[in-house]
Amino acid sequence: MATTQTPDALLVKSYIAGDESALSVLVSRHQSKIYGFIYSKMADRDIADDVFQDTFIKVIKTLKSNSYNEEGKFLPWVMRIAHNLIVDHYRKNKKMPMLRETEEFSIFNVLSDNSLTIEDQLINDLIEKDLQKIILQLPDDQKEVLMMRIYQDLSFKEISDITGVSINTALGRMRYAILNLRKVIEKNQISLSA
User: Structural domains in the chain?
Assistant: First the structure.
């Protein structure tokens, strides 16, 4: 019988063996993290809901076909499925995801100072808008790692698991993203300070 204390790997085995409740435990255990990841990438909640459902349809099909072999790494595997479905969605629609600035993901919240004047805040907002335009010009793989690291505060291990690349590849993409940002900033003589 599946319980909330049962490890993921055992729940997966139980589900494959026919215990439907094991999948419910897995979904409720990980749904907020998986849905949060999907929603952070999508422009609208209905599409995010669809991708979330499609993710678990694919999870169920894979588990039922006995082709799951992630050896106890259930969450990263599901995140990789979600990531691939998001990429497929944007490929089909030929649209790149927009940067979604929210209160919690604004880079200037980290730097914010309660003594900022309205003028300083306006300058900071303009600088961040310029920075976001530059980020949009990066190659997709570099932009993805940069967004996950800075705006979603994911570790390189999490980025590696979600994107299905090694940690070194994720680190390399981040390094190239920063080098490319520097080149664009220097080439255009952009000042990123207030």
Answer: 8-93 (1.10.1740.10), 103-187 (1.10.10.10)
